[in-house]
Amino acid sequence: MQKSTVDLINQITDWYIPVKNPMEGYIYLGKENQDIKKSGTEIKIMAQRLEDLCNENLHKGEDFKISYKESKEDKYEFRYRVHFIKGAESDMFALRYIPREIIPAENLKLPLLVNSVLKSKALSRGGLIIVSGETGQGKTTTCSSMIQYRLKEFGNFALTIEDPPEYFMDGKYGDKNGRCIQTEVFSGGFAAALKGAMRSYPAQSGSILYVGETRDSETASEIIKAVTNGHIVFTTIHGMDILSTITRFVAMCSGQNLSEDEVRQTIAMSLRLVVHQRLERFTPKDGAQTVHVHCESLFSDGPTSSVANKIISSNIRGLAGDIREQEAKIRSVGPSAIIGDWEKTVR
């Protein structure tokens, strides 16, 4: 397959292909949709071949994965997560593209505080990282990229639980034997998958757990259990800003054999960073992908911090002052003014 065709197909995030009639489907190039029958020859041929592959794999259930190569010798492979839609008038396959390449951490262009915390050796002692935002704002990109960085830089182990996987993360990283096992959850079921996965989780400090999205109270409570065992836990959550994100997470954790007071105490001890992000720009640069995001962040270095005290006392609104204070210190001094003492403990 020619590189120009590969570049075009890589830009298609979603395919919607009617069963037995792929030319009546449509694709999404970024935020814009386009009819397949009005597309170029390459898209039409690909649509027909994807429809054939979907039909061949439909016996696996409503959700399954497929991979496509033009030939066995072709080095380009496209991977998709497929959901079968039983329509009122016609059935359809919805395909979501799974990128193979994770965007390198240096290309994310994250703010100094966020970048410093997520790359710090001090984080190997464990802690909770919450990345919030609306759909399509790069939350998974941030988590995947930073997990890849930590595996290469510090070694250790990562386990992911995702629905659906957005990047290919399985395998070995770097010369320090960093390893990742990527698991997929079908039709929800994060909490059950998380419980099962933790039974085989290595009992070593610095291990990373990534929960693709915290959607319910049972999943949130399992995350709290994992982080209190000394793991680094990354998770994403839908939220409008940092304060609403923390409020929602506390509410979801409560009621699962823990009182709200116990939940606030646990979160206050384990929380390290909350990031709320909005994707500003996504552009190719010298063949590498570059993501520009606007981030609001809040760091906490432990149970005696101002942030922890406000969470314990349920003064979530008061955290707005901590956010402003941290932003001011970064502008005047830099991230070391905020995370310096936390980092010194591991040097």
Task: Give short descriptive properties of this protein.
six-stranded antiparallel sheet, 11 helices, single chain, eight-stranded mixed sheet, alpha/beta
Overview of this protein structure:
With 347 residues, this protein is of the alpha/beta class. It is 35% helix and 28% strand. The protein contains 11 helices and 14 strands. The protein has helices at 3-10, 41-57, 112-119, 139-154, 190-198, 217-228, 242-253, 260-270, 306-312, 319-332, 336-344, and strands spanning 12-18, 26-29, 32-35, 63-68, 78-85, 92-98, 127-133, 157-162, 171-173, 178-184, 208-211, 232-238, 271-285, 288-299. Strands 9-10-8-11-12-7-13-14 form an 8-stranded mixed sheet, with helices on both faces. Strands 3-2-1-6-5-4 form a 6-stranded antiparallel sheet. A hairpin with a 4-residue loop joins β9 (171-173) and β10 (178-184). α5 packs parallel to α6 and α6 crosses α7 (242-253). The longest helix has 17 residues, at 41-57. The protein starts with a helix and ends with a helix.
Query: What order do the helices and strands follow?
Result: HEEEHEEEHEHEEEHEHEHHEEHHH
Q: Low-confidence parts lasting 5 or more residues at pLDDT below 50?
A: none
Total strand segments: 14
Distance between the first and last residues' Cα: 50 Å
